[in-house]
Amino acid sequence: VTDGTPAGTRLLADLALTPLLTQDSNPTRFRKLGALTAFLTHDSQTRDATLWVSDGTAAGTRSVTAGFTVDGYAVTLADRIFLQIQDPVLGHVLLVSDGTPGGTRRLPIEAPLSSGPAPLALGDELILFLDKGGRPAVFACDGSSVRLGRVLPGAMVARHPLRLGERIVFSVQGAGGTPEELWSTDASAAGTEPLLGFASILASTR
C-alpha cells in the first residue's frame, strides 16, 4: 500500500505461500468487495490459486480459500464476489464469497461456453451463459444456488448481453451462419424469448 511517497509505502503481506516452489504470486482479478479489496493469487508452477481480501492493513490482509485454478471472470454483486474457477474435485465451479471462510461456497455449474459472454447482474442475481447438454443456456445464481432459466434452441451462441431495466437483451447466432436473432430474458423459462430476427446478407462469389 502506498500514498506515493517512500515513507508512505509499506508491505502488507507476503503473498508467496510456497516460497520453496516459487517466489511468484501473480496477483490478479482485483475487485472492490464492500469495504475490502478482493483479489486472487497463484504461483507459476502449480497454478494453485488463493482468494485474498485486504482492508489496507497488514492485520486485515488474509487468505480466504485456496486449492483451485483460475478459469475466468470475477464479478462483485451485493457485497459478494463471484469467480469462475476449476475445482480439482467438482470441476467447473462458481466460487461465491463475502470475504470470510464461513461465507464462501463452491457451486458446481455446467461447462462455460467457449466463446460465451461474461455474466451480468440482474437484481440480486448473476445471469450466466453456460453449456447445457451441448446447447447454450441461460442460468441465474443468487449466491446460494444456480438455477436453469432456459436452454436456447439449436446451436445458438449468446453474444453482446446488455441490461435494460429488469431484463437482459442479447443476440444469438445460429449454426452454419444462420441469421442472428435478438433475445430477451428475465432469467425465467417463460421470460426468455426471441424478440426479432435479422436477415442474413451473404456476399456473392462470382
Please tell me about this protein's structure.
Helix content is 0%, strand content 50%. Strand 10 and strand 11 (146-151) form a beta hairpin. It has strands at residues 28-33, 36-42, 49-54, 62-77, 80-87, 91-97, 104-108, 120-122, 125-132, 135-141, 146-151, 157-164, 167-173, 181-185, 193-197. It contains no helices and 15 strands. It is elongated. The model has no long low-confidence stretch (mean pLDDT 86). Strands 1-2-3-4-5-6-7 form a seven-stranded antiparallel sheet, with no helix packed on it. Strands 8-9-10-11 form a four-stranded antiparallel sheet, with no helix packed on it. A four-stranded antiparallel sheet has the order 12-13-14-15, with no helix packed on it. The protein has 206 residues and is mostly beta strands.
Record keyword descriptors for this entry.
7-stranded antiparallel sheet, 15 strands, 206 residues, single chain, mainly beta, 50% strand
Helix/strand layout:
Layout: E1 28-33, E2 36-42, E3 49-54, E4 62-77, E5 80-87, E6 91-97, E7 104-108, E8 120-122, E9 125-132, E10 135-141, E11 146-151, E12 157-164, E13 167-173, E14 181-185, E15 193-197
Antiparallel strand pairs: 1-2, 2-3, 3-4, 4-5, 5-6, 6-7, 8-9, 9-10, 10-11, 12-13, 13-14, 14-15
